[in-house]
Amino acid sequence: MKLLKTVFCIFLVFSLNACQPTQSATSKVDANDFASFWIWGDIQTAPYLVHAQELYILQGEIHYSKTKQTLTFTPQGVSILKLPHQKIWLVFRTHHLAWNEQNYQTILNRLEHWRNQGNQVQGIQIDFDSKTNSLKDYAIFLQKLRQKLPQQYRLSITGLLDWTNFKDQNTLTLFRQNIDELVIQTYQGTATIPNYPEYLKRISALRLPYKVGLVQHGTWFGNSTKQKDPYFKGYVVFLLRSKA
């Protein structure tokens, strides 16, 4: 009888523990645990940057100029550096898709300038917050951009969590044909979107190579993607200037 009581108590303890989230279920995003980073400004050198394998470096923004009555490029982020030991992606933010030839040429020139410094330039990343119902227009824009981009360069884009609800296969086919990766952002500003793992459960249905974008010091839910997901290619951490 005493043995049965002991067994029951042990079973009860395990049952209660199974219902509670473990201490390690969530934690803070520690840049030291990752190897790919977004560099959005003049961030001081840190140990995790020295050992970084891949850097996404902001170069500027394409926006509409009222004075010039056209889309124009404004340089942002850091200037051209010599970083021969890391894979480099050049990031360009845009608020419009009707690029002119000068916009395209500006990007191509930047690629060559970075490459001429001996850098391992992978390609460009476009940061454009397309509404989900406007993804077809975005896919057509990316198709044109891919045609203008020299073959040795790859094309990456950032993405919003709501895109995981998108199901139009014709548009998704355009994405598959023209981009090399989608980096889905799990944060807004400097804060983690609390329920992002729920969106990531649906991302494989897009059948696009993807990485998960995290914000430094944000909430880390552990590996909330499937380890065996063939489309999952890793993580990228957005570094904050206030906490290096």
CATH architecture annotation: Alpha-Beta Barrel
Percent of residues in beta strands:
25-35%
Distance between the termini: 60 Å
Widest sheet: strand ordering: 2-3-5-6-7-8-11-13
The class by helix and strand makeup works out as alpha/beta
How many H/I helical runs? Answer: 6
Number of domains: 1
Q: What is the alpha-carbon Rg in Å?
A: 21 Å
Helix percent reads 25-40%
Overall 3D form: globular
Number of strands: 13
State mean pLDDT (0 to 100 scale): 87
Largest sheet geometry: 8 strands, parallel, barrel
Order of helices and strands: HEEHEEEHEHEHEEEHEEE
Q: What's the CATH class label?
A: Alpha Beta
What do we call the CATH topology?
TIM Barrel
Any low-confidence stretches, pLDDT <50, length ≥5? 1-24
Organism: Acinetobacter thutiue
Keywords: Signal
Signal peptide: 1-18
InterPro entries: DUF3142, GH
List descriptors:
about 30% strand; globular; eight-stranded parallel β-barrel; alpha/beta; TIM Barrel
What does this structure look like?
- Residues 1-18 form the signal peptide.
- The chain has one domain (34-44, 58-238): TIM Barrel, CATH 3.20.20.
- The N and C termini lie far apart (60 Å).
- It is an alpha/beta fold.
- It is built from 6 helices and 13 strands.
- The longest helix is centred in the first third of the chain and has 18 residues, at 2-19.
- An 8-stranded parallel beta barrel has the order 2-3-5-6-7-8-11-13.
- It is 27% helix and 29% strand.
